[in-house]
C-alpha cells in the first residue's frame, strides 16, 4: 500500500447541529491526501453550517433515505482507494487517518478500527478510553456474534472490500454498520489501534437514543442472518 493513497471520508448529514465540527476535524487531518464527501440526506436544518466549507468538500444532496443510503451514495462518488466514515456529530483526532494508514501498511490488513472517547453536547470528554480488549481473531468472532464493539466512525478500510462483500444494506436503518462488519469478518483480517483517535458524541438527539427499541430488534435480525456463517468460521479458527 502506498501511504500517499487517497482516503475518501464520507460524512452522512441529516439535521445535525455539529456537522461543521465534524468537517473541521477532517480538514485538520495530518494525512495529506483526503477527499471529504458530505452527503446531505434531505436535511431541513443546519445546512448553513456547511456554507464556509463548500470549496473544500464534495457536497451531495439527496432525498432522505437513511444513513446507509447516504454512506452508499458517498462511496459511489468517492475517488479514494480507502474509505472512512465519520458521523456528523463525531470528531476525528488530527492524526487518526495517518495512524491508521500506517497501521494497515505495517500489519498487511485491509480493515482497521480504533479506541475512542465519549464526549457530550459541549465537546467535553465524559469517559475514560473506550477500548475493545480482545486477544485474537477467535475472541473477536465470539464477541461480534453477541454484539458490535466496533465504532463505525473509527473504521478505515480498503475500498476493495466493497467489491468483495457489497455496500451497506439500506434495509437496515440502525445496524447497517454491524451487518457490514459481519460480512467483512469471514474474508479479511482486522487490525486495531488501542489509542483513542475519535471523539464519539453522546447526546439526547442521537439516533441510537431515539430509536433504541427498533435498533435492538434490528440487532437480533442481523445476528440471526450471520451467526450460522460466523459459527462455522469460529469452528475453523479453533481447528475443529
TrEMBL record:
All copies of the Glycosyltransferase 2-like domain together span: 8-129
> What's the domain of life for this entry?
Bacteria
Tell me its family.
Answer: Belongs to the glycosyltransferase 2 family.
Protein name per UniProt = Glycosyltransferase
| Native source organism of the sequence | Paenibacillus tianjinensis
Q: What broad taxonomic lineage does this protein's source fall under?
A: Bacteria, Bacillati, Bacillota, Bacilli, Bacillales
Amino acid at each position: 500500500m502506498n501511504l500517499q493513497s487517497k482516503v475518501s471520508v464520507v460524512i452522512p448529514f441529516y439535521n445535525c447541529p455539529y456537522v461543521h465540527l465534524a468537517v473541521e476535524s477532517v480538514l485538520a487531518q495530518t494525512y495529506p491526501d483526503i477527499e471529504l464527501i458530505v452527503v446531505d440526506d434531505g436535511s431541513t436544518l443546519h445546512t448553513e453550517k456547511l456554507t464556509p466549507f463548500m470549496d473544500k468538500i464534495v457536497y451531495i444532496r439527496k432525498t432522505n433515505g437513511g444513513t446507509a443510503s447516504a454512506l452508499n451514495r458517498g462511496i459511489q462518488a468517492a475517488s479514494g482507494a480507502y474509505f472512512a466514515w465519520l458521523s456528523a456529530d463525531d470528531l476525528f483526532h488530527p492524526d487518526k487517518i495517518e495512524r491508521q494508514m500506517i497501521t494497515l501498511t505495517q500489519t498487511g490488513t485491509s480493515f482497521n478500527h480504533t479506541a475512542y472517547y465519549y464526549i457530550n453536547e459541549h465537546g467535553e470528554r465524559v469517559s475514560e478510553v473506550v477500548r475493545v480488549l480482545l486477544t485474537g481473531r477467535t475472541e473477536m468472532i465470539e464477541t461480534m456474534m453477541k454484539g458490535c464493539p466496533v465504532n463505525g466512525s473509527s473504521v478505515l478500510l480498503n475500498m476493495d472490500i466493497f467489491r468483495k462483500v457489497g455496500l451497506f444494506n439500506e434495509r437496515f436503518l440502525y445496524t447497517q454498520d454491524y451487518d457490514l462488519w459481519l460480512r467483512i469478518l469471514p474474508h479479511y483480517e482486522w487490525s486495531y489501534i488501542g489509542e483513542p483517535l475519535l471523539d464519539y458524541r453522546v447526546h439526547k438527539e442521537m439516533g441510537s437514543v431515539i430509536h433504541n427499541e427498533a435498533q435492538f430488534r434490528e440487532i437480533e435480525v442481523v445476528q440471526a442472518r450471520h451467526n450460522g456463517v460466523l459459527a462455522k468460521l469460529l469452528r475453523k479458527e479453533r481447528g475443529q
